[in-house]
């Protein structure tokens, strides 16, 4: 999972500073397998694997192979979920 954080300082006309903080959470999930197993005979057939499950630990070659169907992770549909969280501190709030 990747997390980015950004802080923006803004000054109003009176010289006061307020802070806006936002963080972006990005998670990637791999869905159903889309490998065409009948491509060599001119057809179309998928194996029905519904979700990628790594067959090894993170950092090993097995982490890229699906335990259910044996295909490489790149054959599975990639789903990216992005969540943005913003926090705002008004200029007259007390921060110490």
Automatic annotation (TrEMBL):
The keyword Zinc-finger applies. Residues 1-23 are annotated as: Disordered. Keywords: Metal-binding, Zinc, Zinc-finger. One of its GO terms (molecular function) is transcription cis-regulatory region binding. Pfam families: ZF-HD_dimer. The keyword rRNA-binding does not apply. Residues 30-79 form the ZF-HD dimerization-type domain. GO terms for biological process: regulation of developmental process. GO terms for cellular component: nucleus. This is ZF-HD dimerization-type domain-containing protein.
């Amino acid at each position: 999972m990747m997390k980015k954080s950004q802080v923006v300082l803004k000054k109003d006309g009176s010289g006061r500073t307020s802070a806006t903080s936002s963080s972006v959470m990005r998670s990637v999930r791999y869905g159903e397998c889309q490998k065409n197993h009948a491509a060599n005979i001119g057809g179309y057939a998928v194996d029905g694997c519904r979700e990628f499950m790594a067959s090894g630990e993170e950092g090993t070659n097995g982490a890229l192979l699906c335990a259910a169907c044996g295909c490489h992770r790149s054959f599975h549909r990639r789903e990216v979920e992005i969540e943005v969280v913003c926090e705002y501190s008004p200029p007259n709030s007390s921060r110490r």
